[in-house]
Amino acid sequence: MQKIRVSINRESNTLNIWCDEPEKEFISEKTGEEIILKKDKNSLIVGFEKLNLFPGEEDMPVEVTF
Protein backbone atom coordinates (compact mmCIF):
# COMPACT_ATOMS: atom_id res chain seq x y z
CA MET A 1 0.00 0.00 0.00
CA GLN A 2 1.32 3.41 -1.02
CA LYS A 3 1.80 6.02 1.71
CA ILE A 4 0.03 9.35 1.37
CA ARG A 5 2.25 12.37 2.00
CA VAL A 6 0.72 15.59 3.30
CA SER A 7 2.59 18.87 3.70
CA ILE A 8 1.62 22.45 4.40
CA ASN A 9 3.88 25.21 3.12
CA ARG A 10 3.16 28.31 5.19
CA GLU A 11 5.44 30.45 3.03
CA SER A 12 3.51 29.75 -0.18
CA ASN A 13 0.22 29.13 1.71
CA THR A 14 -0.34 25.77 0.00
CA LEU A 15 -1.32 22.23 0.91
CA ASN A 16 0.32 19.37 -1.01
CA ILE A 17 -1.00 15.82 -0.98
CA TRP A 18 0.87 13.03 -2.77
CA CYS A 19 -0.60 9.57 -3.35
CA ASP A 20 2.52 8.46 -5.25
CA GLU A 21 6.16 9.50 -5.51
CA PRO A 22 6.51 13.27 -6.15
CA GLU A 23 9.33 12.49 -8.60
CA LYS A 24 6.73 10.93 -10.93
CA GLU A 25 5.14 14.35 -11.56
CA PHE A 26 5.37 15.07 -15.27
CA ILE A 27 2.72 17.73 -15.83
CA SER A 28 0.46 19.96 -13.74
CA GLU A 29 -3.11 20.86 -14.59
CA LYS A 30 -4.81 23.80 -12.90
CA THR A 31 -8.51 23.47 -12.18
CA GLY A 32 -10.84 26.41 -11.69
CA GLU A 33 -10.99 25.91 -7.92
CA GLU A 34 -7.41 26.82 -6.87
CA ILE A 35 -6.41 23.16 -7.15
CA ILE A 36 -3.46 21.96 -9.20
CA LEU A 37 -3.50 18.30 -10.22
CA LYS A 38 -0.07 16.65 -10.45
CA LYS A 39 0.03 13.94 -13.13
CA ASP A 40 2.54 11.37 -14.32
CA LYS A 41 3.54 10.58 -17.91
CA ASN A 42 0.40 8.44 -18.30
CA SER A 43 -1.88 11.29 -17.12
CA LEU A 44 -2.59 9.48 -13.83
CA ILE A 45 -2.94 11.76 -10.81
CA VAL A 46 -0.04 11.35 -8.39
CA GLY A 47 -0.96 14.30 -6.15
CA PHE A 48 -2.57 17.69 -5.89
CA GLU A 49 -1.88 21.13 -4.50
CA LYS A 50 -4.42 23.47 -2.87
CA LEU A 51 -3.54 27.13 -3.37
CA ASN A 52 -4.45 29.85 -0.84
CA LEU A 53 -4.98 27.33 1.92
CA PHE A 54 -5.58 29.97 4.59
CA PRO A 55 -7.39 33.18 3.51
CA GLY A 56 -5.48 35.38 5.97
CA GLU A 57 -2.74 35.13 8.57
CA GLU A 58 -5.29 35.47 11.37
CA ASP A 59 -6.78 32.17 10.16
CA MET A 60 -3.47 30.29 10.28
CA PRO A 61 -3.59 27.50 12.86
CA VAL A 62 -0.81 27.30 15.41
CA GLU A 63 -0.72 23.51 15.09
CA VAL A 64 -1.93 21.12 12.40
CA THR A 65 -2.52 17.46 13.23
CA PHE A 66 -3.24 14.65 10.79
Task: Supply the key terms.
single chain; 66 residues; mainly beta; five-stranded antiparallel beta sheet; 38% strand
Describe the structure.
This protein is mainly β and 66 residues long. It contains no helices and 5 strands. The chain has one domain. It has strands spanning 5-9, 14-18, 27-30, 35-39, 45-50. Strand 1 and strand 2 (14-18) form a beta hairpin.
Give a topology summary.
Layout: E1 5-9, E2 14-18, E3 27-30, E4 35-39, E5 45-50
Antiparallel strand pairs: 1-2, 2-5, 3-4, 4-5
In short:
The chain has 66 residues and is mainly beta.
The overall pLDDT, averaged over residues, is: 86
Largest sheet: 5 strands, antiparallel
Overall structural class, as computed from helix and strand content, comes to mainly beta
- DSSP strand tally: 5
Q: Taking strands numbered 1, 2, ... along the chain, how are they ordered across the largest sheet?
A: 1-2-5-4-3
N-to-C CA distance: 18 Å
Whole-number tally of structural domains: 1
Low-confidence stretches: none
Shape: globular
How much of the sequence lies in strands comes to 35-45%
Q: Secondary-structure element order, as H and E?
A: EEEEE
Q: What fraction, in percent, of the residue positions are helical?
A: under 10%
| Rg for CA atoms | 13 Å
- The count of helical stretches stands at 0
